[in-house]
Write a structure and sequence with these properties.
Chain lengths: 136, 392
């Protein structure tokens, strides 16, 4: 069975600030990032849909200790965002001083752009990730 | 299925970077387990070995085959298990199944790792390989970052002020260090206070240095035997009476349950049901405290305490010797250490010592009969549970 929305397709779209997902024909659930089947009911009957790219911060952390090769990036803030369509998505938060990230962030509305991680010797290429900023 | 007993155990000291190779560390632990079982290496019918990052730490894959040959278990089938930090428990669970099924009578299971030898940057990079590499690593996720985000979620979910939660978490670290100080095999021997935990360097907000376990080197192994074979080998068999294992997808996709980890709840229920016991029946437990918040999440998922109430339970001594269940009186991952491919076997080593009444002075639980191990791999991607009971 052919994969409906591959990482490559998802990644290429994200690089144009488009967030793609899958809508289940059986239960209407949205699956982001893409999988072979609906993450709720396991149906393979899915159609590719575009998310509006907005959501709410559910949790966060500011990272001070980097993985090898990413030393220049610290400190940075990671967030998990509940998209308006339901799924959670991990990304980075800009618009704040990472050292001042507090519990006040939880519940803030954000929208999405992207930034490319250029990759390292283990990553099999570059990859975009969502870059969230506050909805003004 | 046949009953299966642990008849021998071996464990190296867990440590920072050291000079012994993975094969050498595994061999030392294995020979202690084999000798302690009154067996010879040639009696071992198969090896089940947890090893996660040997490819990176010393450029060694397939360590299990070289380990088998090294200890004199020539040409036996040897299998490697990789489920991140739960690898050794996966190995033991499979070893159990092969003996329970009647296919083998005597096998060796365990694990080995040189996580400390990798150094912090490479260890941080390779540990992050157990998060989703396509959809989460680009954001810079690391292991402390996963549990840091779970800490904020936990505070929000159970409406606990973060400062209060941090104190409760610090208390779990202090208890772990207290017992690690009494364990000669522990990696970190320190006296640490709540104040010291709260003044530590922030690794990933809000987790500070003493909220995090160390990267460790070390190995641990056990010999498993059928009930009939065990009778001839020991008068103190410890039976594995319950096993569980479950999986989950990437962290973001676990959102319906977070900060609870669904795989743990499924795995532990499998083990409790198989053993025919309840969480309240457990006397001693080794749980996966890779981070202080992980203690609270684990103790609740295992059914020891109510959701959101573990911190209070620790502060009241309910997780200490003399409390409801003695948790991590080895020092846990926090103090005893975390050589990831060996950690689960180290937990079983400790529970067997406790059930035999052979733990070090000052940290022996009073007459325990039932023990539990809980081992987590990745950010909840693999969870394993074992229940062990005194067989005499």
């Amino acid at each position: 069975m052919e994969y409906k929305l591959t990482f490559k397709e998802f990644n290429n779209a994200l690089k144009k600030d488009k967030l793609l997902g899958l809508k289940c024909s059986q239960c209407s659930s949205i699956t982001v990032p893409p999988k072979m089947v609906c993450r709720q009911c396991a149906s393979p009957e899915l159609e590719v849909v575009e998310m509006i790219g907005k959501g709410t911060i559910k949790t966060f952390t500011t990272v001070n200790v980097a993985a090898e090769g990413r030393e220049a990036e610290v400190p940075y803030t990671i967030v998990m965002v509940e998209l308006e369509e339901g799924p959670w998505l991990m990304g980075n938060l800009i618009d704040i001083d990472p050292s001042k990230a507090t519990m006040e962030l939880i519940g803030r509305k954000v929208e999405m752009g992207h930034k490319v991680f250029p990759g390292d010797k283990y990553s099999a290429g570059d990859m975009a990730r969502p870059l969230f900023h506050f909805v003004s | 299925m046949r009953k299966v007993a642990v008849v021998g155990i071996g464990e190296t000291k867990f440590s920072g970077p050291q000079d012994k190779t993975e094969v050498e560390l595994f061999a030392e632990a294995a020979m202690d387990a084999i000798n302690g079982s009154n067996l010879k290496s040639k009696d071992i019918q198969a090896l089940y070995v947890g090893n996660v990052l040997g490819d990176f730490s010393e450029g060694q894959g397939m360590v299990q085959s070289f380990a088998a040959e090294n200890i004199g278990a020539f040409n036996v089938p040897a299998s490697r298990f990789e489920g991140a930090c739960a690898s050794a428990t996966m190995a033991i669970r499979d070893a159990f199944m092969w003996v329970a099924s009647g296919f083998y009578d005597i096998v060796l299971a365990g694990g080995v790792e040189r996580a400390a030898s990798m150094g912090t940057p490479l260890a941080t990079r390779t540990f992050a390989m157990f998060s989703d590499s396509r959809y989460e690593y680009p954001s810079g996720i690391t292991f402390p970052a996963v549990f840091a985000m779970l800490t904020h979620l936990y505070a929000k979910q159970y409406n606990i002020p973060l400062a209060k939660l941090k104190e409760q978490m610090a208390f779990t670290s202090v208890q772990a260090y207290k017992y690690g100080l009494l364990n000669p095999k522990a990696h970190l021997h320190k006296e640490v206070t709540v104040d010291m935990v709260l003044k530590g360097f922030t690794v990933c907000s809000p987790l500070q240095l003493h909220d995090c376990c160390p990267f460790s080197d070390g190995a641990a192994t056990i010999v498993l035997a059928s009930e009939e074979a065990a009778k001839k080998l020991t008068d103190k068999p410890v039976f594995i009476t319950g096993i569980g294992q479950a999986s989950s997808g990437p962290l973001s996709n676990q959102n319906d349950y977070l900060p609870r980890l669904r795989a743990r709840e499924l795995s532990s229920r499998q083990a409790y049901d198989m053993a025919g016991i309840k969480p309240d029946d457990v006397d001693v437990a080794e749980i996966h405290d890779c981070f202080s918040i992980a203690n609270l999440i684990a103790a609740e998922g295992l059914g020891f305490f109510e959701y959101g109430k573990s911190g209070e339970a620790w502060e009241k001594g309910e997780a200490d010797i003399g409390g409801k269940v003695a948790i991590n009186i080895s020092g846990g991952l926090k103090s005893k250490g975390h050589p990831i491919g060996a950690t689960g076997a180290g937990q079983v080593y400790e529970i067997v010592k406790q059930l035999r009444g052979e733990a070090d002075s000052g940290r022996q639980a009073p007459d325990p009969k039932i023990g539990l191990t809980d081992t987590l791999g990745g950010d909840g991607g693999t969870l394993c549970t074992l229940i062990l009971e005194r067989g005499w």
